[in-house]
Amino acid sequence: LSDNDVILTGDESLQTRPMDLLINSINYLGIEAKSLKDNGKAPILIKPGYIGGETNIYGNVSSQFISSIILSSPLSQRGVTLYVLPEFKSRPYVENRFVKKGISKKRLGMELVEKGISRETIERVLEKRSDEEEIRKIIAKKRAKYDDDKLINYLVRQGFSYQLAQNLVHETD
Fold this sequence. Notes:
about 170 residues; two-stranded parallel ribbon; 8 helices
């Protein structure tokens, strides 16, 4: 990202965090990076050049690692394909969004993209979900509280299609 060598030192807290997984992942993208203390922690030397390509990173360590690769990817020469393995740390977030509040697949997908989760991983998680099932759960919870119009509007705000929300709300009348 620079025409010169860069050394990232960080504060005391950052210098205690293992960065070797991130370093290994970005090395596959043509970025020459290494821990100057050979312990996988800062200070980190980064040489000029960012070719891009494909790399993997474990999603169960830090979403910040994933975000750093995604945010820098437009600066690469060839673009970046990032595979998050074996699962991503945001899985509890996904489960919580469905179970507690109820949210459409479309809206959850957009939120996960914003969090930097790969499209492949998002598709894998969302294929197990049904908007119809989610709407039925929400209707069961909120039916007594809202009239039909308010319930349909609430469902649309959660990212569900108007037509599906309308059909299922009227079906339960």
